[in-house]
């Protein structure tokens, strides 16, 4: 039986709001306490670890989510598929762990980040228990939300107890690892109680090809932002990595909240597509896209106009150089969100990953070329790195959209006025911000005034234009209020 999509979105949004508020509080404390160099060591180590993590997860999350969504009503198939994915995860996690340990020993044994790399290695083993894709396929967003909130709160308590200065970066990394393990093991126990393992009927070979394809397309950041972070650490310093990652994390916080709409609808879209219900698929795709763009564009432009003061409030004056980096990330976020719709909700759901891999590879190689060109011109920096990455990602969006319209024949118009109008509305933030900045306000007050006034202006535009998304949200809120009063 299908669960309420509105309820799923509610839980997912609640979870991401929590994930929005918590990193703002905790992240700010970590950045200010550890400083740019120390936290940069952890983040550079994480960048190296991520290359091995890609093989450890092996695309199981994305592939498992899609395939489990299609067979979730058949208990026997679910048991067989889950056991097969678990078996593959055990193999890839152990191989990745060995690979990281060898790489760390020969490449960084005499470096300060060596102990952190070894610590991150344990996370590769813990990946065996990462089965959240099963809960998402079954649309158990209530469990995911409650579990995550509790574990994150435990993490926060220990963070404030243990992290007191710039020398505590190892303890900081340890807390990150332990919170991940706790999150994984709780989900594994929950899933294991509902799905029986059946090693007699496992199938591995038939899943390898689609998994390899998913590994490539779902980890495109290895040729994009992950490459940027690694090259910054190798060619500049860990402080440069911290500026890049701070801006990326700030963008990620906002993007994760907005992208809830897309993540929650993937199982339902896969279900419609798998049952050849094209009419329902297109209707849901168009409606969700409209809602998504109504939030994506103002969030991106809003982040752009407050980028310089946001990094100071969040990380302190030492992170002021990250302001321009966040501004570029705000522009990049538009391409990231748009690409997520095209790749995850259309191309991947339609099982055309092989085409997606080619397009990502082309644009990824282009980004690699951009980075080496920046190094050759001696202008490689956190800001220029993400700028060229944004260019490559916008090209990817255009190529994906061309393929969807020309070859898949999906009746979806990305650049319709119904979608683009929210970008036009959001541009009002630019003159508003310019006028407000003429006032003599301190940093925090200026930040609050800019946020409140710009949000208010955007809401008024939606109100006076009688926007569909605005009316939809208003109607939903009124219905909830009426139910509570009765």
From TrEMBL:
Q: Which domain of life is it from?
A: Bacteria
One matching Pfam family is Polysacc_synt
Q: How does it sit in the membrane?
A: Multi-pass membrane protein
**Where is it located?**
Cell membrane
Q: Where are the transmembrane segments?
A: 9-31, 47-65, 86-107, 113-131, 143-163, 169-191, 211-232, 291-316, 322-343, 355-377, 383-402, 422-439, 445-465
Keywords carried by this UniProt record = Cell membrane, Membrane, Transmembrane, Transmembrane helix
What name appears for this protein in its UniProt entry?
Oligosaccharide flippase family protein
């Amino acid at each position: 039986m299908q669960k309420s999509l509105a309820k799923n979105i509610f839980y997912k949004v609640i979870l991401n709001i929590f994930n929005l508020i918590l990193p703002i509080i905790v992240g700010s404390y970590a950045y200010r306490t550890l400083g740019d160099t120390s936290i940069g060591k952890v983040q550079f180590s994480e960048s190296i670890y991520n290359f091995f993590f890609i093989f450890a997860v092996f695309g199981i999350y994305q592939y498992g989510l899609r395939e489990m969504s299609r067979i979730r009503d058949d208990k026997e198939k679910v048991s067989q598929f889950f056991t097969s994915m678990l078996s593959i995860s055990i193999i890839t996690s152990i191989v990745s762990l060995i690979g990281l340990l060898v790489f760390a020993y020969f490449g960084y044994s005499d470096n300060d980040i060596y102990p952190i790399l070894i610590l991150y290695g344990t996370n590769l083993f813990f990946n065996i228990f990462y089965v959240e894709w099963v809960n998402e396929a079954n649309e158990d967003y209530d469990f995911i939300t409650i579990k995550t909130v509790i574990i994150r709160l435990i993490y926060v308590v220990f963070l404030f107890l243990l992290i007191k200065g710039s020398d505590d970066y190892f303890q900081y990394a340890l807390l990150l690892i332990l919170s991940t393990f706790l999150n994984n093991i709780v989900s594994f126990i929950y899933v294991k109680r509902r799905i029986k393992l059946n090693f007699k009927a496992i199938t591995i070979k038939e899943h390898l090809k689609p998994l390899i394809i998913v590994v490539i397309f779902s980890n495109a950041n290895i040729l994009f932002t992950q490459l940027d972070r690694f090259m910054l650490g190798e060619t500049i310093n860990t402080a440069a990595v911290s500026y890049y990652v701070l801006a990326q994390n700030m963008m990620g916080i906002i993007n994760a909240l907005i992208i809830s709409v897309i993540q929650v609808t993937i199982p339902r879209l896969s279900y419609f597509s798998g049952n050849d219900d094209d009419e329902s698929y297109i209707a849901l795709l168009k409606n969700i896209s409209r809602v998504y763009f109504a939030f994506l564009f103002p969030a991106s432009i809003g982040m752009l106009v407050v980028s310089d003061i946001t990094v100071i409030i969040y990380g302190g004056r030492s992170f002021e150089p990250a302001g321009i980096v966040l501004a570029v990330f705000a522009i990049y976020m538009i391409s990231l969100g748009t690409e997520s719709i095209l790749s995850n909700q259309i191309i991947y759901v339609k099982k055309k990953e092989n085409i997606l891999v080619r397009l990502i590879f082309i644009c990824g190689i282009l980004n690699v070329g951009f980075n080496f060109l920046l190094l050759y011109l001696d202008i490689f920096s956190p800001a220029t790195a993400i700028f060229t990455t944004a260019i490559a990602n916008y090209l990817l969006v255009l190529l994906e959209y061309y393929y969807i319209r020309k070859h898949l024949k999906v009746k979806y118009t990305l650049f319709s006025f119904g979608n683009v109008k929210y970008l036009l509305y959001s541009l009002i933030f630019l003159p508003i911000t310019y006028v407000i900045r003429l006032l003599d306000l301190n940093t925090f007050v200026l930040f609050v005034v800019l946020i409140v006034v710009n949000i208010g202006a955007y809401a008024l535009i939606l109100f006076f234009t009688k926007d569909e998304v605005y009316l939809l949200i208003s109607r939903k809120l009124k219905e909830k209020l009426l139910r509570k009063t009765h």
